[in-house]
Amino acid sequence: xxxxxxxxxxxxxxxxxxxxxxxxxxxxxxxxxxxxxxxxxxxxxxxxxxxxxxxxxxxxxxxxxxxxxxxxxxxxxxxxxxxxxxxxxxxxxxxxxxxxxxxxxxxxxxxxxxxxxxxxxxxxxxxxxxxxxxxxxxxxxxxxxxxxxxxxxxxxxxxxxxxxxxxxxxxxxxxxxxxxxxxxxxxxxxxxxxxxxxxxxxxxxxxxxxxxxxxxxxxxxxxxxxxxxxxxxxxxxxxxxxxxxxxxxxxxxxxxxxxxxxxxxxxxxxxxxxxxxxxxxxxxxxxxxxxxxxxxxxxxxxxxxxxxxxxxxxxxxxxxxxxxxxxx
Length: 328
Ligand code: TRP
Known about the structure:
The chain has helices at about 20-35, 45-50, 55-70, 90-100, 105-110, 110-120, 125-140, 155-170, 210-215, 235-245, 250-260, 265-290, 295-320, and strands at about 10-15, 40-45, 80-85, 145-150, 180. By secondary structure, the chain is mainly α.
């Protein structure tokens, strides 16, 4: 059991896609705000991505992308532990132990696995076992809280259940039973008004060039009122996005729209400018980090060292308790 009064929070990020504004506002920014309250661990869940990504160079590059994104967005590696899942392979040892107390029915009820079957796919065993690896990710580091979106809640319930079962079978304190912290993060609309997501192809890439930002923004659907007509912000995607990135200036845009003589094209240009101002510095940092893979690797290695020390302590408790290897 951790004796530290500061609770540990942990989150894994699957390296499967280029980050977009929805990821930033809905997940990255709120997660970084937790750093003040918790001892925070963030890791790149590259082995989870292996259930779907088949291109080795893409997987490797996406892992660096995730690390560079979080750093560019403000993660400070001297106070937050940033590491790559695969750099602490002890997680597989714990995943096996958890698998030995999990019921197959629990995995059969997994949303991702069930959805894949419902779509008529033949999911690989990695998809089936995904929740075990995720539970091991969490339990290996004595995690107290896992801030997650609602879609991950089932995984957390399984994690808690498995930790409790281990403690019931082998003694209290072998594993820390984590709390679920679901955060109602803002949902960011995409270019078509639906939730911004890679699969819908409606995203504003976080690190797009100024030109790329403009191209994306000018695809947004708007009303067709004439320039001089007054316009309402109700249901306006342009306004909603503007409000997210330039909240202080949103009332001014609302006023201009209501007054008439300010067209949707003007509003779009103002959104482009606001995005550019909001993202320019992050993009600069991201590009610098992305160009220096050795530096990124050093940061990840530093994180893995801290993470490994905790992992070894957990696994030695687990081995001792379960009768694996020599007694201490
Ligand atoms: N399953 C998570 C997702 O799809 C990623 C993840 C892997 C994770 N391991 C984790 C999240 C541990 C929180 C804790 O986004």
